[in-house]
Amino acid sequence: MAGPATLGAGLRHPSSLGRQDNVQGAVLRDVEEEGPAGRAGLLSGDLIQSIDGIEVDDPCGLEHVLADRKPGQEVTLTILRGGERLEEQIALAGALNVDRAACEAGRAAACHRLAAFYAAGDRGAGLAADPSRAVELYRQACDGGSADGCADLGMIHLQGSGAPADEAQARALFRQACDGGSATGCAHLADLFVIGRAVTKDDAHALTLYQEACEGGDGSSCYNVGLLFEKGRGSIQSPSRALIAYERACELGSFLGCTNQGFLYERGLGTPVNLERAVDFYRRACEGSPCASGDPLGCFNLGVLLRDGKGIAPYKAAAAGYFDRSCEGGSALGCANLADLLQAGDGVPKDEQRAVELFRRACDGGHTISCRNIAALQESGENGESGEEEAQAPDRLETACLGGEAVACHELGVLYDEGWKVARDQARAAGLYEKACEGGEPRGCVNLGVLAAAGTGIPQDDARALALYQQACDAGLPRGCYNVGARYAGGLGAPRDPYHAAQLYEQACNKGDTLACLSLGVLYDEGDWVLQDSSRAHDLYRRACDGGNEEACAKLRAKPAR
């Protein structure tokens, strides 16, 4: 069990060392003396800029290239040390072998890396996941001085996964990690202060910790710094400071940060309007990286600018492509806007049948106008199917479902659930939804969860409903995230946790779920577990209303913006 190819060192982003020159590459840290890098004379602090002539932008880029190499293979590294550029040939080694030997020799950083292998397992190396062994190694790493080891051990105690849940112990480990220089530890500790878990809720202290983590190279923390400045939590409201934080988040690989940066440039918040820069940041957000998926909202926003010709020449065919990427990433907004173009043949070939499918996906994701569009198309007969084809739809779907097509199982379940073209049979619908869910169709999980929550067609079971909604949320379906949030808001199948509900509502709202936008707006309107913010509530009601939610429109009429 050699494991994947390694240099025998940790990696960090150049900006985490305080560099301001925008240099790209991956900085070595914790170089193992008996590893490939150590034997070749490389040092902690060396900046790797290319491998075999392939330029690397950051640690993610280097890891991506290494993933295509094998232990024993020789590579040529271009290295920047001080002002000197060097080239070194290095024979790679197996990560498991290197880290196991270094850990046994008392190297805490190696124990931390080894723990990560045991926590996740490595199928290629034949290593099965072993949570208990991972906990032992994280503890050994922490005790040996690895601050990141303490951070990961704290998360295990916080979640109760592999070790008994102990919030006080988790907090102490996060504090130890943060004090020891772990950006991850500072970020986890900040999370506790934001939600008031195991500590008194304190946004100002959370902001300080997120800033420390951001300076240490944690992109998600930079994103959170931006959010707090943008919303005026823990500090005075400052869009200009949010802009700086989002830009750093984007540089460090937080694509949510790229999206928010683009939004501020698009709207002229904290900076003059600059649509060209908005386009650039939305594109970066959408494209992602080899190590992390892009942000579907970034794809959607870029599609809107391309469709409308804002900051870039109008190009509806390209807009459709970005809406499609957004839709595939789980954004109901992306599905709905692509359906609009296809239904009208606007810039793309007309395809009413696919438009109906996309409207249904958007509707299932919480986009109310799409639900109405489906009904209107069905009533008018403009759904891309003849009357004979409609009558044969259940048989076609049955055949496809039996053939293992999860989407077909879900669509057939909808017919039985609603009694459309077939006799209504919600027990049959439940079975079809379950098959769809097991086959990887998240809409099947949501609809089965709805039946479980109501006890319709199957026994009532709040815990099962929550698990099904969570499965759909994890698969990227916004309505799944909304439903999980609603469960936590009401204490149904889980302890009541309005703050967690608010996080889930925001996640679903950003992907186009109008009910999530409405529900989050209500929390901000009433100051329920979030800071009361009438302006934020109004913006959320507007988003929900624009998506067709009549209740949100009524709230806007009752409380016009001041």
Count of distinct strands: 8
Q: What's the CATH class of the domain at 5-99, please? A: Mainly Beta
The global form is globular
CATH architecture descriptor of the domain at 5-99: Roll
Mean pLDDT equals 89
CA radius of gyration = 26 Å
Residue share in β-strands = 5-15%
Q: Can you say what the CATH homologous superfamily of the domain at 5-99 is?
A: PDZ domain
Class based on secondary structure composition and strand pairing:
alpha+beta
Query: What is the helical fraction, as a range of percent?
Result: 55-70%
> What characterizes the major β-sheet?
6 strands, antiparallel
Low-confidence stretches: none
Number of helical elements: 28
Query: What is the CATH fold-level name of the domain at 5-99?
Result: Pdz3 Domain
- N-to-C span: 65 Å
Describe what this molecule looks like in 3D.
This protein is α+β, with helices and mostly antiparallel strands. Among the domains are: 5-99, PDZ domain (Pdz3 Domain), CATH 2.30.42.10; 295-383, Tetratricopeptide repeat domain (Serine Threonine Protein Phosphatase 5, Tetratricopeptide repeat), CATH 1.25.40.10; 477-562, Serine Threonine Protein Phosphatase 5, Tetratricopeptide repeat, CATH 1.25.40.10. The protein is 62% helix and 6% strand. The protein has 28 helices and eight strands. The strands form two sheets. Strands 2, 3, 4, 5, 6 and 7 form a six-stranded antiparallel sheet that branches. A two-stranded antiparallel sheet has the order 1-8. Strand 4 and strand 5 (54-55) form a beta hairpin. Helix 17 (352-364) packs antiparallel against helix 18 (368-380). The mean pLDDT is 89.
